[in-house]
Amino acid sequence: MAKNHITTTINGDEYEFLCDTEQTLLDCLRDELFMTGTKEGCASGDCGACNVMLDGQLVCSCLVLGVEADGKSVETIEGMAHGDKLHPLQQKFLELNGLQCGICTPGILIAAKALLDRNPDPTETEIRYWLAGNLCRCTGYDKVVRSVQAAAEEMRKG
Amino acid sequence: MATDLDDLTYDPNRKLKVVGTNPIKADGVDKVTGRAKFGADTYLPGTLVGKILRSPHAHAIIKSIDISEAEKIPGVKAVVTRDDFPDLKPGPMRDISVICMARDKVFYDGHQVAAVAATSEKAAKAALKVIKVEYVVLPHVIDVMDAIKPDAPILHEDLRTKGLDDAPDKPTNIIQRAEWSMGDVEKGFAEAYLIVEREFDTKPMHQGYIEPQGCMANTTEDGQIELWCCTQAHFVYRSRLAAILEMDISKIRVTVSELGGGFGGKTNFYAEPLAIVLSRKANRPVKMVLTRNEVFRATGPVAGTHSRIKIGVTKDGKFTAAECEAYFQTGPFTGSAFANAPQAIFTRYDLENVRAWGFEVACNRPKVAAFRAPCVPQIVFGVEGVVDEIARKLKMDPIELRLKNAAVEGYKTIYGDTFGPVGFVETLEAAKAHPHYSAPLGPNQGRGIGCGFWFNRGGETTASLNITPDGSVNLMLGNPDVAGSRVSISMMAAEELGISVDKVRPIIGDTSSLGYNHSTVGSRVTFSAGMAIVQSARAAIKVLCQRAAIMWDVPEDHVVFEDGYVRPASTNVGDFEPLSIADIAKKAGTTGGAIAGHAEINAKGAGPGFGVHIVDVEVDKETGGVQVVRYTVVEDAGKAIHPLQVEGQFQGGAVQGLGWALNEEYIYDENGCMENPGFLDYRVPVCSDVPMIDTVIIEVPNPRHPYGLRGVGEVPVVPTLATIANAIGDAIGTRPRSLPMSPPKVLKLIEQVAENGVDEAYVA
Amino acid sequence: MDDLRYEAPGTLEAAVALLAGEKGEARVMAGGTDVLVLLHGDIIEPDLLVDIKNIPELNGITQENGGWRVGAATNCMDIVDHQEFSAAWPGVIDGVKLIGSIQVKGRASIGGNLANASPGADTVPAIMAAGATATVFGPKGQREVPVEDIAIAPGKTSLAKGEIIVSFFFPPRPPHSGGAYLRFTPRTEMDIAVVGVGIDLTLDDGGTCQAARVVLGAVAARALLVDEAAATLIGTAVDDDALANLAAAASAACRPIDDKRGTKEFRVKVAAVLARRTALIALQRAKQS
After folding, report:
1. Contact criterion met (CB < 8 Å) for A57 and C77
2. What is the ipTM of this complex?
């Protein structure tokens, strides 16, 4: 059984790993690289818990094969903070209780960052529709949205 | 003022520094960085992948299972079936064992039949494919009212209904009947000016936690078991695992991971015993993580129901009697907690005459597991609809009607407790005064009010508090944290000790580290573990005082503790500078050893909670589509230890109820197999489906807790279904009586109104 | 058990050779948002996945002879973000925007949406209403196919073994043209359409509809191009009477099933409602263009 040899950049660092063709990028991140911050909630692209950035595009890593990441660049939740400085989104989610159990939080943070990088001043409606692919069962989304709004405001201040 | 360390009742005059603020929770940073370890996040060298073979039939006899081909697949290290599990005698433990591994029959699509541990997922899946199970397919029954019909397919030939005086001696699916009553409902109804009686039905739904169950079992040659898993109930898991595997409890050590949502659904295990037995057989760790498909098909859902609600009222709006008859789906075995319903559904109204009874019914679905306020919201869906109808027919404001009938302190409930101070009136008044209640409605919009009650529980809880050598504090708790209990409990510890909450670090201990703890259920943890930690803190404070007395060489009762310092009780004692906890802790080694406090309690005095919801909906009258456009939750928290956490509970509960009310249901094909076992077609609310959820925290303190708090986890879901239904009724002129209120059903109601006019209650 | 193979050819010829030459089952994979769900749900068991994303002709959005050419594997976010194409074909963008979530749109493509042949696909009624043609390349060379001839039944297309959809051509727009796509779903996002309607119409200078295409999705085994429905609009000012006729024609054309997403009865009713609403949006856009 020959495995595929993949070389990819994750959060700025080069990684190599072996994987079966069927293994998704999510499987590879978790089971081959032990980067467990990215979560599996459904394996069918419906919940967003597995979100990563792939070559600058927000994607569900459960819908990308590990082999497709060869030569590409991936950003995961593990790379969101800068050293010990949390990203404003991470900070606001903590301050405003934008997370309860936390299982959806890595995916939501990745998705929210993708939104704010593209649109620094989104309306509430824009935030809600952008995050429609991120299921949360604990918060009812209210404080998730408020945390994103607060982070956006902080980031706009520079 | 020094705290009276022995007085655990609430003191309204106490000045609080930490409780009532909103510090960042200790587990927060790990969660926003992805560092937090959930059920599927453990890795050990040599781990095997565990996979489960599941029944494709809703109801069948298992004639034979042949695993010989599976064992030959390269990479397969163990295969287990019913033969690897003890054959227990009838009772709750046998039921649990059968849920985890079918014995003679399979009872639902997805029922666990065999399991494999292999070196890769590919090998494990290949092995599952070649396990030969011979089934004799039987007719199945799913809907609760179908299951009680005389000619319904029978799940257990030897089942006879418990709780029925003249139970017929023939096979049935009705497992038991339970009734609660007080007063004289016949008399009450006879006195009524108006009686409203309606029937309602609700479909089953799933808790919908985003994290599928995941575990890792590691067994040793001398019979020890280490289990990591996501659960709300690690002590209960340990006891049950010991029972179904017939081994000593102390040899099982369950460590909880962070929990990615449970809501009651992770109080029962499915994969864990299989992982353990596979690990034993293979002599290697076995990791088992359920797929979303498996979670939906085979883990505990929430009961579908059918109910008849009848309430009588005088001309000026005083309820005279209330009656409920309800049927609850439970799956193949008892254990649905249906008895909650008769005790809770009317409890908030000042009723003397109540009769409520329920039937627990077996059917070919996974065994029901708890959800928030198990078995209650789906019946309150009917109760608050009847109350709404009464208000309309009497031309009374719906909140006024409820205020007129609100139970207050001193009310003796149907389940035997007498209310202490409770906040139902206060929540109603706050809802009435809220701007939402009087805001104008737009076209095609309707507004609904609904309210609910939950007991909130106490129960067996242990905890310990350790003062480290530099005076900072570690807490050892025994209850998985579902949403912020760790931080609230840390705040109480910090308040007791007069230190900053940043100095307090909590962990959830494994089952070997603490005495038994009942599960994280019943909205009990912040209350009970908070109580245990307060007691632990006070015990530690007593020790601190003793040590200070030793350091100063004065009698023990000459010192007092206040605001984080021990000081002389009076100037007569001597001119001593107050000692901080850190000062005393530094010297602990020379004054008697480590300083700690612990508590093993059966927490009592949990105070009931009440909630009132206001919901505005907008109905698309051409399609039946419903949008919730405004939502306000008013709930009594007793005392909000961490207000943002409390708000989060209100909001989360409201939106879970919203999904349940509008779109969530199990859809089965004609073979009894689930057609929507995924988040695509099992429709939980997404971010764009809901508005901001406004919250009002009412505080009528619970006098029996040092911080006055009441549980808040379950009350928020109780009124949701009814309130949204009342809002839709207001918008379309007829009140839905069937859940979910999906567009096709709402459209039918709209067409009915177009043809027949609005319901009598809605005539202006 | 043979391992699943993965190839990512850089040319059309190489891709076709792989697909045509595969003895077992070969699957084309673009964004993977359908194929990987089917694969991991154990619904398909291909021997070979041919990843076509590296083939230049399958990517990009360019103007061509007054119309637009869109690579079949271009991801939906890139399409939505393309301002000029969006301005030219807002009805197509309506459909593209409704596929899945932002994350799914980051990978999904119109080619994949069409080739997956789900009756409820969101871009299909829109591109059919637009009168788009698909350029298909296979062992026998290249051919142009009206997009309505690609999907034939749930999960089945008219493509021969070895054929790939390469790109879509959206024809030049006459003045006063507008299109729209609406769907009914119980939630605001993330659902598969219970009913979908794509309409494109062209008005003359006096505001009378002179051409129309009406397509219904999720109400039959594949999206239906309904000439009778279009006929109710042509020659009218798309007034209330015309819209009522359109609604009736839409309902009459439905051949729906009862399934977990909707009943026959509901689909027939909602098709009428959506047809009217979609036509009004298309009309508005036609007037503004």
Report:
1. yes
2. 0.98
